[in-house]
Fold this protein.
Amino acid sequence: MILKKGNAVIALLLITACLTHVVAEFVFVISKGKGVSTDSIGFLAGIVMTLAMTHVLVSILIITVFHDNKVKILYPRSNVRTILQRVSGVLMLFFLFLHMHTSARLIAHADAGTGYKLLNYMIMAFFFAMVFLHISVSFSGALVTLGAVESMQKKRMIDRIVWVIAGLFFLASAVIVIYGYCSMIGG
């Protein structure tokens, strides 16, 4: 249980770092590079990566070594949420490595044409969709694990709020990708 609580804390720190990184990228793009330095964005990305890899390793440890099959399901639809959480987590990791090199790919292939750019934009959109899906299905669970939320009514309310916020951040990420990369490389 201590490991699960520690992982919940890591997950909440990761969410905070991830959202801060998105906001920094958004400010960078909207201000055309004047609002936030690339060094700051890189530093934030390093924090996100460190927390993400720690969260992944601890999650794998919990699932494979310390998972208790006798635990009763305490709230409805938890199996669907667990499946979405794990699938989005794995897909997010795969697309994270593509995400990390998108700028370099687009700049190196600036003359590759619309299809190539569109493919990269779709990869980025899918990555962000997995990030915000993972946050949406995981956030209230982390709060439950930490004992901060004890009633189903509060949990549902938090879920609704998180879904709205995640949707807004997903739209902000779309602005970053489309507006940002189009202004960087043209087209």
Notes: The chain has a mean pLDDT of 85. The chain is about 80% helix and 0% strand. Residues 152-185 form the longest helix (34 residues). The two ends are 51 Å apart (CA to CA).
